[in-house]
Design a protein that fits this description.
The protein is an alpha+beta fold. It has one domain: Arylamine N-acetyltransferase fold, CATH 3.30.2140. The strands form three sheets. The protein has an eight-stranded antiparallel β-sheet with strand order 4-3-2-1-8-7-6-5. A four-stranded antiparallel β-sheet has the order 9-10-11-12. A two-stranded antiparallel ribbon has the order 13-14. Belongs to the arylamine N-acetyltransferase family.
Length: 325
């Protein structure tokens, strides 16, 4: 949206199909790639529901509105010793630094991300009436709480996806299991896809995952060595390559190592990187430079001098809080 004049992204499936499939333009965010992913799931015969969630920003220590979408998919259980029954898994292809495989929807369940150090887990939280209602008098008899109050309180459970950090587990986003539909996604898209939306209209944020060709031949041996289940780990986490552009930074990580981390010097260089390293913007030319030059997401580094950004995204800190919406 930053390099095109209309400054918006459509959440309508016909537009998404045209963008990704017919014209192979690539590039999008959760309210585009996850609905398309669910169409693929449906075609393949999987049962699922779409949900909406709130993204946590560690930069501002705050939660967004319901502006992220993920999928809950009904899959054969991969958990040993529990038979072959089906269970619900969280599956998300639209969150920047996201799990690379479905995560069993069970409190505290963990799976590896990229490399041997990154992990993700889901935790369940119960929100009680005291968190939203007026505080009760100290002498209130709990036995006299209205049945509807208890019912409403019991329906406030929320799941949170968390990512492991050196300092501990950090929240990524929360979601409930309430099924959502196309009109819900369109409403969320209006809040995140307009010329002043944060962060998508104020910075360039791109993530691409690949299987590194130099590490891939060792994948099967490492899976067996680490006792990973083939159903969830068709490739070892150490062979995953992550490429990112975060505003004026180009970053490449392979497994646990950061192999590239440098500053982008010009808008032309950033466009070239998006074309060459990410396969994006192939349908736009030099006019893209004119399109972005007056937008908040324009490159803020000129002549090698970095300007300090007010929104706290000068470096790569807080990527997870601003990567998905």
């Amino acid at each position: 949206m930053n390099y095109e004049p209309n400054n918006t992204m459509s959440s309508h499936l016909t537009d998404i199909f045209s963008h990704f499939i017919e014209h192979l333009h690539g590039g999008g965010y959760c309210l585009q790639v996850n609905p398309l992913y669910r169409e693929v799931l449906s075609f393949l015969g999987y049962r699922y529901i779409g949900v909406l969630g709130r993204v946590y920003s560690p930069v501002t220590d705050s939660w967004s509105g319901l502006t992220h979408t993920a999928s809950l998919v009904y899959l054969d259980s991969h958990v040993g010793g529990e038979g072959k029954g089906r269970k619900v898994y969280l599956s998300d292809v639209g969150y920047g630094s996201s799990p690379h495989r479905p995560i069993l929807l069970r409190d505290g369940w963990e799976e590896f991300g990229r490399g041997s150090k990154e992990k993700f887990r889901v935790v369940k939280r119960d929100l009680q009436p005291r968190s939203t209602f007026e505080p009760a008098p100290e002498d209130e008899d709990e036995d006299e709480v209205d049945a509807e109050v208890e019912s409403i309180a019991g329906g406030q459970n929320v799941w949170i996806l968390q990512q492991s950090k050196p300092s501990g587990w950090q929240d990524c986003y929360s979601f409930s299991t309430l099924q959502c539909f196309d009109p819900d996604y369109h409403a969320s898209n209006k809040a995140t896809s307009h010329p002043t939306s944060i962060p998508f209209a104020t910075m360039i944020l791109v993530v691409r995952y690949l299987l590194n060709p130099h590490h891939l031949p060792h994948s099967a041996q490492r899976i067996q060595r680490d006792g990973l289940r083939q159903e969830l780990y068709p490739y070892h986490p150490s062979v995953v390559e992550q490429r990112m552009i975060v505003d004026d930074k180009f970053i490449v990580k392979i497994g646990d190592e950061t192999t590239v981390s440098r500053e982008i010097e010009s808008e032309g260089e950033r466009v070239d990187l998006l074309k060459r390293e990410f396969g994006l913007l192939r349908h736009v030319g030099k006019e893209a430079l004119d399109t972005i030059k007056n937008k908040p997401s324009r490159l803020k580094t000129t002549a090698g001098t970095k300007q300090v950004k007010a929104n706290g995204t000068n470096g790569i800190n807080g990527i997870n809080g601003t990567k998905a919406h």
